[in-house]
């Protein structure tokens, strides 16, 4: 790992959950609650849901894509449904909405604090004048940023709702990151992407960004590197020279 010379870059694009805030852990628990309940009620006991499934099929993807990919891994096909489906609907969208209910309840109960090291880096980027944006697959991103006290740091937030409204393909496609760069008015080649998910790292790599930094919060450095990360850190403060 080496320090980043921020004079070489105009902007930084941050995934939210697992990069700026520990809400990836809340998402992981919500997905676990959803799929353990769903698979158990269906009698799918031969292959129980585990945290490995989260990293392999769900992490970093738009909510309904995660549902669809996890079900496909079990050979299960459900009707797609509609985003307006109630949370008890046995559809892809219904399950995704049910997961969001689990997440919202956990967030309300426990709140969220940003990673201290991520705040250190944000403070440093503000000092050197680097533009910043959040690019998240989650439709909960604005609420999480507000709860974490980070909302006023980002004028540009490309979240799951923005992506759906604009018809952008989700990670691992690069579209959302490219949209973040476009909204900041910067060239991807002079922009850094920060991601903790394999799908997000792959998106940054596919977008031709100048530097893709994987943040290892549990997926493992090898998987992040294999997906296209140029560097891997465990804490964003590692990238700030405090001398």
UniProtKB/TrEMBL annotation:
Keyword Isomerase: yes
Signal peptide bounds: none
Gene3D superfamilies linked to this entry: HAD superfamily/HAD-like (3.40.50.1000), Putative phosphatase, domain 2 (1.10.150.240)
Keywords per UniProt: Carbohydrate metabolism, Hydrolase, Isomerase, Magnesium, Metal-binding, Phosphoprotein
GO molecular function, one term: hydrolase activity
EC number: 5.4.2.6
Organismal lineage: Bacteria, Bacillati, Actinomycetota, Actinomycetes, Propionibacteriales
Cofactor(s) demanded: Mg(2+)
Pfam families: Hydrolase
Organism: Microlunatus spumicola
InterPro entries with a match to the protein in the record: B-phosphoglucomutase_hydrolase, Beta-PGM-like, HAD-like_sf, HAD-SF_hydro_IA, HAD_sf, PGP-like_dom2
Catalytic activity: beta-D-glucose 1-phosphate = beta-D-glucose 6-phosphate
Stated name of the protein: Beta-phosphoglucomutase
The family this protein is said to belong to: Belongs to the HAD-like hydrolase superfamily. CbbY/CbbZ/Gph/YieH family.
Keyword Ribonucleoprotein carried by entry: no
């Amino acid at each position: 790992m080496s320090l980043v010379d921020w004079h070489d870059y105009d902007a930084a694009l941050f995934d939210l959950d697992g990069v700026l805030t520990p809400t990836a852990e809340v998402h992981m628990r919500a997905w676990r609650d959803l799929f353990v309940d769903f698979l158990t009620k269906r009698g799918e006991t031969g292959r129980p849901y585990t945290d490995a499934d989260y990293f392999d099929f769900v992490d970093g993807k738009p909510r309904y894509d995660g549902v669809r990919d996890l079900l496909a891994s079990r050979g299960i096909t459900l009707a797609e449904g509609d985003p307006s489906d109630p949370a008890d609907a046995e559809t892809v969208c219904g399950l995704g909405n049910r997961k969001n209910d689990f997440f919202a309840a956990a967030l309300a109960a426990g709140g969220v604090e940003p990673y201290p090291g991520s705040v250190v880096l944000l403070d440093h980027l503000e000092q050197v004048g680097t533009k910043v944006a959040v690019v998240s697959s989650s439709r909960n991103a604005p609420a999480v940023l507000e709860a974490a006290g980070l909302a006023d740091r980002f004028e540009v937030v490309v979240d799951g709702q923005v992506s759906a409204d604009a018809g952008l393909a989700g990670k691992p496609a690069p579209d959302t990151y490219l949209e973040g760069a476009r909204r900041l008015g910067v060239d991807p080649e002079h922009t850094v992407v920060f991601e903790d998910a394999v799908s997000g790292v792959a998106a940054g790599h596919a977008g031709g960004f100048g530097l893709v930094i994987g943040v290892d919060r549990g997926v493992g450095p090898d998987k992040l590197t294999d997906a296209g990360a140029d560097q891997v850190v465990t804490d964003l403060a590692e990238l700030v020279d405090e001398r």
